[in-house]
Design brief:
Elements lengths: L1 H32 L3 H7 L3 E8 L2 H6 L4 E8 L4 E8 L6 E9 L4 E8 L6 E7 L5 E8 L2 H5 L4 E11 L2 E9 L8 E11 L11 E8 L2 H11 L3 E5 L3 E7 L2 E7 L13 E6 L3 H10 L4 E6 L6 E7 L5 E7 L8 H6 L18 E8 L2 H12 L5 E2 L3 E5 L4 E7 L13 E6 L3 H9 L11 E3 L3 E7 L5 E7 L6 H9 L1
Parallel strand pairs: 11-14, 15-18, 19-22, 23-26
Antiparallel strand pairs: 1-2, 1-10, 2-3, 3-4, 4-5, 5-6, 6-7, 7-8, 8-9, 9-10, 11-23, 12-13, 13-14, 15-19, 16-17, 17-18, 20-21, 21-22, 24-25, 25-26
Length: about 475
């Protein structure tokens, strides 16, 4: 009996001890998983860079610019990705991913380029100055193996300043015991001059195209309670949020047909998600996705469908680490009420226009450069940028979102501005394809031009002229 008691006691003590060790180990593992000071050092290299190419550091530094690079932190600030494109040199397109392994207290790099279908890795440490990180690696190079030699190399990251760094590759001469390091290639990066500030965007807008524009207008004004601020007959501009608009277009007179894929979702940002849901259900509005709400989630909402199939997402962004940059922006917005057309208390703060892409990463670079904005919300497979005071653009991986990426898209993304000529000059100076070769006038009411984004969405810039039909819109645009 006593022997059994002793065995049970020892077993319990053992479980407690093992459990304590497990808890401590789990805590240490969680701490090691978070980015720290070394990752912040890498993060200081984010941005756009001019690239100089040479066989060694000095030659690269002394050369004229040969291309450009974009450096971005990935996976929550854990890794620095440097995407290099050069017009000359032994390598024209290279991709480096740098990180710091807190488990083993060492730096690491993954490198690949267009000269092969393989990648190489290297690991190492910084020198006492902290300005030079040498990472050593090997490669099973078939030709060298056939010669009885081993390929070894060093990738050196020279951190010269926040505005100048160098990625140098050196080959180790394994033929001799001296193992001399021979310069092979260096990319010297100097921070690109800041782009001129983008002209003003007064509001965001989306053009939707309908076979029955009057029926759509009835839905948006009498059910959703949106205000009509301009009525051109074939096109009606509705105010959704303080600096967010939606234009309903008769497809017979628009740039898109009513039959094109509706590869877009308009998210209506509101605090009253549950009340909106109950109201729209009472109005027999069809649902694509029912109300979903849960404690601790970054956002709650549902998806409704308008009379001709466009998706409307009603969404609340909750206090959550994912929304830490968005929350203070939304807090400063006075939401719009809907007058008498919808129940009192149903307000709209902002909009997010979700667009669907085959490859989101290049689209991030495209819009960041075009609009001069930084990433605001990172949802993993969806990225959110602020384009106007209450208008946001969301770039979505089409393999994960409500829509797939499509070639045709039944929407035009629009920006209302008081400087359409300034925007035209900015767009023309960027690698952006223009649909209209110049700024044109439309019926004496608006001056516009149209371009394409990198996956084919139409982008339109509009400046409204001081004519009677535009009076209310111009008053609202000037007042936000």
């Amino acid at each position: 009996m006593m022997g059994g008691f002793r065995r049970a006691t020892l077993f319990a003590l053992g479980v407690t001890c093992v459990g304590g060790l497990h808890d401590r180990a789990a805590g240490q593992e969680a701490e090691a998983a978070m980015p720290g000071a070394m990752h912040q050092r890498l993060g200081r290299l984010e941005g756009e860079w001019q690239v100089h190419v040479g066989h060694g550091v000095s030659e690269a530094d002394d050369s004229s610019p040969a291309g450009s690079a974009v450096a971005r932190m990935r996976l929550g600030g854990r890794f620095l990705e440097v995407d290099i494109e050069a017009e000359r040199g032994p390598v024209r397109h290279a991709l480096y991913t740098f990180g710091f392994d807190t488990r083993h207290d060492r730096f690491a790099v993954i490198a690949m380029d267009e000269t092969g279908t393989y990648f190489v890795t290297a690991q190492g440490h910084e020198d006492p100055t902290g300005n030079r990180i040498a990472m050593y690696g090997t490669d099973d190079e078939p030709v060298m193996q056939a010669l009885g030699l081993k390929k070894e190399f060093v990738i050196v990251l020279h951190l010269l300043s926040d505005d100048h760094f160098v990625i140098e590759t050196r080959l180790v001469d394994t033929r001799t015991e001296a193992r001399n390091e021979l310069p092979f290639m260096a990319f010297s990066m100097r921070r690109a001059p800041a782009s001129p500030a983008a002209p003003t965007i007064q509001a965001t807008n989306a053009f939707y195209y309908y076979a029955d524009v009057e029926g759509a207008w009835t839905f948006y004004t009498e059910v959703l309670g949106l205000e009509t601020v301009v009525d051109y007959g074939f096109a009606k501009i509705l105010r959704v949020a303080p600096a967010s608009y939606l234009t309903l277009v008769d497809a017979r007179r628009g740039m898109h047909s009513a039959d094109e894929p509706k590869s877009v979702t308009l998210a209506i940002v509101t605090e009253q998600v549950e009340a909106w849901y109950d109201y729209l259900i009472s109005q027999d509005v069809p649902m694509r996705a029912e109300l979903s709400s849960a404690e601790g989630r970054p956002h709650d909402g549902f998806v409704a469908v308008d009379p001709e199939g466009y998706y409307l997402e009603f969404e609340r962004f909750n206090p959550h680490p994912e929304n830490r940059s968005l929350t203070p922006v939304l807090r400063e917005i006075a939401p719009l009420s809907g007058g008498t057309a919808r129940p009192e208390g149903l307000t709209i703060q902002a909009t997010v226009l979700w667009l669907y892409y085959r490859d989101v990463a290049p689209m991030q670079e495209f819009y960041e450069r075009l609009l001069g904005v930084d990433l605001l919300v990172d949802q993993g497979w969806a990225k959110v940028y602020q384009a106007s005071g209450t208008g946001f653009l969301g770039l979505v991986d089409g393999s994960r979102g409500l829509h797939e990426a499509t070639d045709q898209k039944g929407v035009t993304v629009s920006f209302f501005t008081d400087d359409v000529d300034g925007w035209f000059e900015r767009v023309r100076a960027l690698p952006v394809e223009l649909r209209t070769p110049e700024v044109t006038g439309e019926s004496g009411r608006v001056r516009v031009f149209v371009a394409y984004d990198a996956e084919g969405y139409f982008l339109e810039w509009d400046t409204f002229l001081p004519v009677a039909s535009n009076d209310e819109l111009l008053r609202l645009l000037g007042g936000f």
